[in-house]
TrEMBL record, chain A:
Cellular component GO terms, alphabetical: plasma membrane
Binding partners and assembly: Heterooctamer of two A chains, two B chains, two C chains and two D chains.
Protein name as catalogued: Cytochrome bo(3) ubiquinol oxidase subunit 3
Gene3D superfamilies: Cytochrome c oxidase, subunit III, four-helix bundle (1.20.120.80)
Ranges for domain Heme-copper oxidase subunit III family profile: 43-240
Keyword Membrane: yes
A Pfam family: COX3
Membrane topology type: Multi-pass membrane protein
Organism annotation: Pseudaminobacter soli
UniProtKB/TrEMBL annotation, chain B:
One term under GO cellular component: plasma membrane
Statement: the UniProt record of this protein carries the keyword Electron transport: yes
Gene name of the encoded protein: ctaD
Top-rank EC class of the record's enzyme: translocase
The protein's name: Cytochrome c oxidase subunit 1
């Protein structure tokens, strides 16, 4: 990761390990996180903030679910698909989760190839990630349609507490928006990789900053975060 | 603790990160309007915040007119009064103070004080301002929308916030309010990420975290807090917007309104309160911490003395920031809660007094035997300390459940929070403007107008808010547009209310003088020179005043010492700038 070495710090020779190292980095000049670029640091801090958003959403949902006096619909029945005459619980969600986790794998490979400046492979893997992400959103749209057909609305549903529908649409909708934004940016960055923007240091249209292959990794941070959030939504909404 | 003193000057690594690629504006539009320079963005933020703050000031006059002279103004109906109260509170807390401290002072001072050329991502920074402006415009729109702005109170508690009995509840008011808040949070996040990353990763050579001026520490910690606290408000706004627009029941229990059963059922109004105050209490410190930081620098500079206990000041800021996330429910004692929770939150609330008291003692000890110059910034800083102690002490009363329960719905609380997070931070805002105006414009603000502004504002604020404590103790309820003929309220209350209202009008007038001074001095102020206060921190050492695009000319400054080398024994003058290599003998060397 030679190109991420941005500051030639005098600590490069003898940097203390472990907690002493962290203390030494934080008490040094210029950068608290050595060799972490501005973009990557900003993405990490944004994700921390976004964690609080999803945390608040999930906590609110749990509060609603625990304090409701009417029964909560049974997720394994609601989210079951009828295939070949029998109800298979959570099958669609299982596939969706599998698709999204797989997309994290392709993203990680894209980041790897990005650091080797393998233009085509990086771009193809990023586009594959985007396709998997779009598939996820597509299946989510299918799930929404199915539930709406069955009468689930934000303000009520046939089976019990009306907070079920409202929390479901709000949380999965908010997560789906994150995935959609991710897919859009995956395509944008894949295009930049393919065009060789990061090889020639072409300036961004809006920011007039030169990009680098590190942008692939920053994109990856966001994508893995979105996947991780899904795991929590999956656990708290579908498995509970 | 790791040794933070530089070993030798030549051990400092070479500067200039390749990422410093500034956006160079080519036209008037990209220089002054769609500007990416943090200094221009700062001024845009500050002007927008002051403009909307003026609206909130006028609203406060209207409220005071109604309270002081209940039957004199027929156009101030109870509904209008609630709308004034709501918009006044929301604008002052969020659109004025938060935006001014973080968007205004943060943008101007952070890059200059840490020795950077700009924020790390100027384009995102620009977007931040434009989204903030959009949020303000949406807020202003609600004044002209059918039904007027929301009158739900600045806390927007459901269920009343979206019921038809509340002004704007079933009209556009609450929708625009919530949308505006969501926009504000999005815009703020863009700016806030910039401030945090600039402080962490964008400093110049030799600038360690423990050499940052406390102003930067205050703004930095407040920004981190805002990035973690605003999400709760964001979520609360989204959910209430759904309750209002889609008919969900996140916050809405079963309600019978005018004999009609509403569609909502099973929601939890308390959930909103928790979300709101998980944001709302840190918000108090989001406003207060930058004020703490700025006031430390003002006192040190104008008393020509190093700040007392710099390390403790930093840890106190960080500690207050962390603690303020575990005290939120002290705003909810009257909402009803498990007594053990009340005990927990009362305890944490009172613990916050410890780091806060450390800060107050350190300010006073900085003044102790200092060479105090009673300049305008110093006057405002001193006024801040007095006011803050005053408001903080009543906070100790209210932090206790048994005291809070009877006082919570009285004017005592109004007096408390106006003292501690209204008047006190605003005094710092004024002090900071008097202090940094010469750097921003190259000219001093007019002294005579400034003196008038200070004394009227400071004494006037006491004339307004001090009597309110007594009003609260005799049981005058807050949020009431008029008291009417109530047996337990003595006549003197009405006299006092009239007195407060007149004082409020006079103080408001003094602010007009201040605004006039701001504009008048741009052309007619005394030439300031580069460093009129003989201050040490980096922003006063720029090659040009006002600083130009890129701040530092060809070479970034190199920092050799902390920001508080005032009156160092044996030094040729009574201050040593941070970028002065000097003899290597620094006050920080003793640490």
């Amino acid at each position: 990761m030679a190109e991420t070495t941005l500051t030639n710090t005098h600590m490069a020779q003898a940097r203390p390990q472990g907690w002493r190292g962290i203390a030494a980095d934080w008490s040094s000049d210029q950068r608290a996180f050595k060799n972490v670029s501005w973009g990557k640091a900003m993405m990490w801090i944004f994700l921390l903030s976004d964690t609080f958003i999803f945390g608040c959403f999930l906590l609110s949902y749990m509060t609603a679910r625990m304090s409701t006096t009417v029964p909560w619909p049974n997720p394994s029945e609601v989210f079951a698909l009828q295939i070949g005459g029998s109800d298979i619980p959570l099958i669609l969600i299982a596939i969706m989760t599998f698709v999204l986790i797989s997309s994290s794998g392709t993203m990680a490979m894209a980041v790897n190839f990005g650091y080797r400046h393998a233009r085509r492979k990086t771009a193809i893997l990023m586009l594959l990630t985007a396709v998997l992400g779009a598939t996820f959103v597509g299946m989510q749209a299918f799930e929404w349609t199915k539930l709406i057909r069955e009468g689930v609305r934000p303000w009520g549903n046939p089976w019990g507490a009306e907070q079920f529908g409202s929390s479901f649409f709000m949380i999965t909708g908010f997560h789906g928006t994150h995935v959609t934004i991710g897919v859009i940016f995956l395509i944008i960055i894949a295009r930049k990789v393919l065009r060789g923007d990061y090889d020639v240091g072409r300036r961004g249209f809006f920011t007039s900053r030169r990009g680098s292959y590190e942008n692939v990794e920053i994109m990856g941070l966001y994508w893995h975060f979105v996947d991780l959030v899904w795991v929590f939504i999956f656990a708290f909404f579908y498995l509970w | 603790m790791v040794d933070i003193t530089p070993r030798a000057v030549d051990a400092i690594p070479p500067a200039e990160v390749p990422e410093v690629e500034l956006y160079h504006p080519r036209s008037w539009w990209t220089t002054y309007v769609f500007a990416q320079d943090a200094k221009v963005i700062a001024i845009q933020y500050a002007c927008t915040a002051l403009a909307i703050g003026l609206v909130a000031l006028v609203l406060s006059w209207l409220m005071r007119l109604q309270l002081g002279f209940p039957d004199a103004f027929s156009f101030i109906t109870p509904e209008a009064y609630y709308q004034f109260i709501t918009m006044h509170g929301m604008i002052m807390v969020i659109y004025l103070l938060t935006a001014l401290f973080l968007g205004g002072f943060g943008n101007y001072l952070i890059p200059l004080m840490v020795g950077a050329r700009d924020m790390v991502f100027p384009y995102v920074n620009m977007l931040s301002y434009w989204i903030y402006l959009l949020a303000v415009l949406v807020l202003v729109t609600s004044f002209f929308a059918p039904g007027g702005p929301t009158g739900a109170g600045w806390t927007l508690y459901p269920p009343q916030a979206i019921l038809s009995g509340t002004p704007g509840g079933q009209d556009w008011g609450i929708i625009l309010m919530l949308s505006s808040l969501i926009l504000f949070i999005i815009g703020f996040t863009m700016g806030g990420l910039n401030y945090v990353v600039t402080v962490l990763q964008g400093r110049t050579r030799g600038m360690t975290l423990m050499r940052l001026p406390l102003t930067v520490w205050g703004i930095f910690t407040a920004t981190v807090m805002a990035l973690l606290a605003f999400p709760a408000l964001f979520v609360a706004c989204v959910m209430m917007l759904f309750d209002r627009l889609l008919g969900t029941s996140f916050f809405m229990p079963a309600v019978v309104e005018m004999g009609t059963q509403l569609q909502h059922r099973g929601g939890s109004p308390l959930l909103f309160q928790h979300l709101f105050w998980f944001f709302g209490h840190p918000e108090v410190y989001i406003v207060a911490l930058p004020a703490f930081g700025i006031v430390s620098d003002l006192i040190s500079t104008h008393a020509r003395k190093n700040i007392f206990g710099y390390r403790m000041m930093v840890w106190a800021i960080v500690g207050i920031g962390a603690l303020s996330f575990v005290v939120w429910a002290h705003h909810m004692y009257v909402s009803g809660m498990n007594p053990y929770f009340g005990f927990f939150f009362a305890t944490t609330t009172l613990i916050i007094a410890v780091p806060t008291a450390i800060k107050v003692y350190n300010w006073v000890l900085t003044l102790w035997r200092g060479d105090i110059h009673l300049t305008l910034p110093m006057l405002f800083a001193l006024a801040f300390i007095v006011t803050f102690v005053n408001g903080g002490l009543t906070g100790l009363f209210l932090g206790n459940v048994v005291v809070d329960v009877p006082l919570s719905d009285t004017m005592f609380v109004v007096a408390h929070f106006h003292m501690v997070m209204g008047v006190a931070p605003i005094l710092v805002v004024f002090g900071a403007i008097y202090h940094w105006y010469p750097k921003i414009t190259g000219r001093m603000l007019n002294q005579t107008m400034g003196q008038f502004h200070f004394w009227v504002t400071f004494l006037g604020a006491y004339a307004i808010f001090f009597p309110m404590h007594y009003l609260g103790l005799v049981g005058v309820p807050r949020r009431y547009p008029e008291l009417g003929q109530t047996a337990f309220i003595p006549d003197s209350v009405h006299t006092l209310n009239a007195f407060i209202s007149i004082a409020a009008l006079i103080v408001g007038f003094a602010q007009m003088v201040f605004l006039f001074n701001l504009i008048w001095s741009i052309r007619h102020g005394k030439e300031a020179g580069g460093n009129p206060w003989r201050a040490t921190s980096l922003e006063w050492q720029t090659p040009h005043t006002p600083p130009r695009h890129g701040n530092w000319g060809k070479e970034l400054p190199v920092v050799y010492r902390w920001a508080y080398d005032y009156s160092v024994p044996g030094a040729p003058q009574d201050f040593i700038p941070q970028n002065d290599p000097g003899t290597g003998r620094t006050a920080m060397g003793m640490a």
